[in-house]
Amino acid sequence: MYLNILAMGQAATISSDAAGTAASSTGSSGMMSTFITFALIIAVFYFLMIRPQRKQEKEKKSLLSAMKKGDKIVTIGGIRGTIAIVKESTVVVKVDDNTRMEFSKSAIATILDKKGAPKKGSADKAAKTEKVEKVEKVEEVEADKKAEKIVGEIDPKKSEKTSTEKK
Does 123 or 83 have the greater pLDDT score? Predict the structure, then answer.
């Protein structure tokens, strides 16, 4: 009887070892999936929040360091003006003819127009205007030719007069 109890104890030990091995393999795969999920969440946070914020901070820092006298700016409070004096950590902004206000550089939200830099789109507008003028001139010439042709078909004498008058 004692041998039977020992045999059952060994069988129980063997079965518990097998169950433990199966549980440990399930536990390690569960731990691995948890680790992968956690890594994906960190990656999403990095690409959607941290990286764009760092890029924006870098642009803001370069914007503030590039400020100079004559630039038109807008503050974070919505005040618009022209930079009169640039100091180390502050900027004096000319708001009206006799009104000057001193702001911290970090209070500047955007620079509207840089002094000496061409305005955005001014070259494009000039090119578009030239194209429109050229097209209008071509259309006028074509319209004149069509009108002469129509007049010539109706009354050949008038077409001769109009063509001699233009010359």
Answer: 83
